[in-house]
Amino acid sequence: MDAEYTSGQVPGYPTGGAAWDPQQQLQSLQSLTAFTVTIDYSRDHTTFLVCPAGQSQPVVRMHKDYPYNVDVRPYYVYPAFGPQQLLGYVKLGQAWDAQQVLVGGLKPGARRINLDDAQLVQHGLDATLTAVRQELTGGRRAARTAYRVLDDFNLGFGLGWRDRAVEDAMFSAHIRCAGPTSPGFDLVRKAGPTALYEIVVHDPRLSRLIVLAYLERFSTSSDADVRAVAVTATTSPFRNLTENRRMRREKQQREGS
Fold this sequence. Notes:
Blueprint: H1 22-30, E1 34-41, E2 46-52, E3 60-64, E4 75-79, E5 88-91, E6 94-97, E7 102-106, E8 119-122, E9 125-133, H2 138-156, H3 164-171, E10 173-179, E11 182-189, E12 196-201, H4 208-221, H5 226-233, H6 239-254
Antiparallel strand pairs: 1-2, 1-12, 2-3, 3-4, 4-5, 5-6, 6-7, 7-8, 8-9, 9-10, 10-11, 11-12
């Protein structure tokens, strides 16, 4: 994973200030068992805001100075109250610690779309988590079933197409990532045109960086948000290629070649 900076400093923030204990801050992230995540989409940046359940102030941010669909650029994970230091990186469904050591993420070879059936692994944890979509209950289940019947009717006459991401935005979604040796975590995408996620972690051993890595891919590949659609419409389809070349030049400059 090639990050733009390797010093443990988040780009755009000054150094200095009070002494900082990375292990203490990482434990603060690990202490989150129930939290919500919202996303700030822009052509200039993308930021995931992590708030403890029932609170509105973020304690962790996952940020990059690029549109969400510029996948070659990693996200920086850092404390909201100490943005000058890193907790780790997230990129393309994988998570690294602040020293760029791979923590885990989507299983190699896993599809990058339809992440409600993906598998995740964490190095050092003898567990493979499989994502399974949970059925809705009550009125939402009935409404979604009716919508699918109409959708199938339209499909039969070539009048439409099945888009699960749009259905999730209309009716909500619940994904459970668990395995035989780990209860894993639950992710709920609340209904609405802009995404709000509720996450509950059931296994204290599970790295929250991996949870964020899964969420990042789910939000990018398997969800619909009107703000993300707007960003996609105004971002060059060649932006990833351009940034990939720029990253190679940056790496050569860092290495003095």
